[in-house]
Amino acid sequence: MSQEDREVAEIVEAARIWNYEATKRAQKELESKYVPILAKTAKVFPLTISQGIVFPSLPLVLQGISVVGSPLAPVGSQRQMLEFAALHGIKPQIEKFPLTQTGQTGITNAMQRLRDGKMRYRGVVVVP
User: Fold this and answer.
1) CA 91, CA 71: separation in Å to the nearest integer?
2) Gene3D superfamilies, alphabetically (predicted)?
3) Do both 52 and 107 map to the same domain?
4) Which of 45, 52, 53, 81 is the most exposed place for a label (fewest CB within 10 A)?
């Protein structure tokens, strides 16, 4: 196996581990933080699932909450979400990593945080 193949395999494994840990955290947050504030008959459109998400079924059934599988939420729902975010000043939470002249520092740091399971939200490589 070439060095490049080993590096790719290492990145894939780090991403798999991160996804598993992130999914566990997301499930706890979903049940404790988000389900209680969802309106009755709310619709949830999970858009970035890489592993299965386990939803607590009893609260969903009792409140009539739907989980809708689709590669994209309907345009009207996207528009409402963006309007809501703009109205309340909600912005994405990201970690920025600089793409330096050599091109390695930001990417190396981002990949290390991913491997260590310390990446929060989205990692973005920024071109100066």
Assistant:
1) 22
2) Medium-chain alcohol dehydrogenases, catalytic domain, NAD(P)-binding Rossmann-like Domain
3) no
4) 52
CA dihedral 83, 85, 46, 42 (to 10 degrees): -70
| Cα–Cα–Cα angle for 50, 107, 24, rounded to 5 degrees | 30
What is Dmax (Cα atoms) for the chain? Answer: 55
Pull the structure tokens for residue 39.
Answer: 């309106």
pLDDT tens digits along 95-123: 888 887 565 677 888 888 888 888 888 88
Which of 99, 17, 24, 121 is CA-nearest to residue 9? 17
Residues 6+ apart with CB under 8 A from 128: 98, 99, 100
Are both 45 and 69 inside the same structural domain? Answer: yes
Domain extent at residue 44: 3-90
Residue found under tokens 């840990």: 21
Q: What is the dihedral of CA 80, 84, 87, 89, to 10 degrees?
A: -130
Q: What total of structural domains would you count in the chain?
A: 2
Asked if residue 115 and residue 84 are part of one domain, the reply reads: no
pTM (whole model) above 0.70: no
Q: Are 23 and 70 within one domain? A: yes
